[in-house]
Amino acid sequence: xxxxxxLSAHFGRVAALSNAIGILQWDNDVMxxxxxxxxxxxxxxxxxxxxxGMMTDRRIGDWLAAAADEAxxxxxxxxxxxETRRIWTVETALPADLVEASSKAISACEMRWRQARxxxxxxxLLPELAEVLKLQREIGRAKGEKLGLSPYDALLxxxxxxGRSDRIDALFEDLAGFLPGFTEEVIAIQARRPAPPExxxxxxxxxxxxxxxxxxxxxxxxxxxxxLDVSTHPFCGGADNDVRITTRYDExxxxxxxxxxxxxxxxxxxxxxxxxxxxNQPVGQARGMSIHESQSLLMEMQACRSREFIQFAAPVMRExxxxxxxxxxxxxxxxxxxxxxxxxxxxxxxxVTYPAHVILRYRLEKALIADQLPLADLPAAxxxxxxxxxxxxPPDDRLGCLQDVHWPSGGWGYFPTYTLGAMTAxxxxxxxxxxxxxxxxxxxxxxxxxxxxxxxxxxHSQGSLHQTDELLTRATGRPLDASVFKAHLRxxxxxxx
Length: 497
What we know:
Elements: H1 3-30, H2 37-55, H3 59-67, H4 75-91, H5 96-119, H6 122-147, H7 151-159, H8 165-191, H9 205-219, E1 226-230, E2 236-239, E3 242-247, H10 254-272, H11 288-303, H12 307-321, H13 330-337, H14 354-369, H15 378-389, H16 416-435, H17 439-444, H18 449-458, H19 468-476, H20 482-493
Parallel strand pairs: 1-3
Antiparallel strand pairs: 2-3
């Protein structure tokens, strides 16, 4: 056995364990009874320690050194060595006891967050969240020392390999200067037009579920390799070839759950389209979270809020709920789905205000990791940023700093990838439509195969063969360019819209 094949076999076993962890995490968030929380936390901690031990196996360094000199390796095999080294370098920065402590703290904090969110009780979450934050700082410092990065950039690197906060700062400052004024302009434009008629509910959950399943099939989701469920916070998870998504329902408004399903289906299509030949190898994994978020936001925002899609979907929606009258016409539904307003909840935000929600969280998590903001002051700092960036102040912490599960679940450094993903989505969709002018007309017929086929070829099937900037440049002809995103917003929502 050569060194490269030994590495492949070893990381195949790592992938098998990671898949088991993924299914247990899905069960934790969707089906697990509350009384099992303690036992599950211990199981997850031990599995994470076992996985960490496999990822830091001393043989990996020797295999990497020997494999570097092997002849006959193709581009995928060479890229697999690069990605393996990157992952191994990060994992070896952490001692096993820190991995175990972090896993246990996250399990406890996630369970406490569910109740704290329901009760709008940030103080009740504070002890558990403080422990998660303390351990994330330790993880950031340990990884940063190994990689030569600041603690925050070391955490960011887990979600956005090669991503750096100085580049994000520049991109976000540009957007933060553009969005408030543009939001004012769009709201004024929309105020001069008739408001869309109200949709009369209620909208029973089972009918919403059936509509969601139908639209998942339209987009190309493979139900032989996944399923749809309900969770407190919508997500895409599971395992290789078992890609599960969730949403949450409101019987007074079906539109939010449906767009949530379409968003998570975008993630799932990426996962289901990864290269089967390298599915269990580092090179076969998705290329960072900005690309992942681009795939969900491309489906939800770029494709499924387009005039073409709404014209296709309007009669399907009417049939699902027995709707009649002007509110169910395509033009009314389009105005509803492209309505811009200042709201409290990120996952329900429109395309224009959404980036402001993300910039807020990015600023706050950077300050918290750097110990420049006391955790107890988070609700007040959150409200100040909401006032500055979005123009509203939440009435309680349930609608404020408790709304997302990311920080309780240890996802520090994740948030900027949402807006990086929105900009990337605009750029990829623009390139796809220029390359194949039939994409939008086909969406108008309920045919997503031209779009998904293009994404399969240029994004999904590429896994981590290329680093992020190279992948985007190969797909679109240039690295990330915020001007494409801003031009898209102006076309859809500006004076000429």
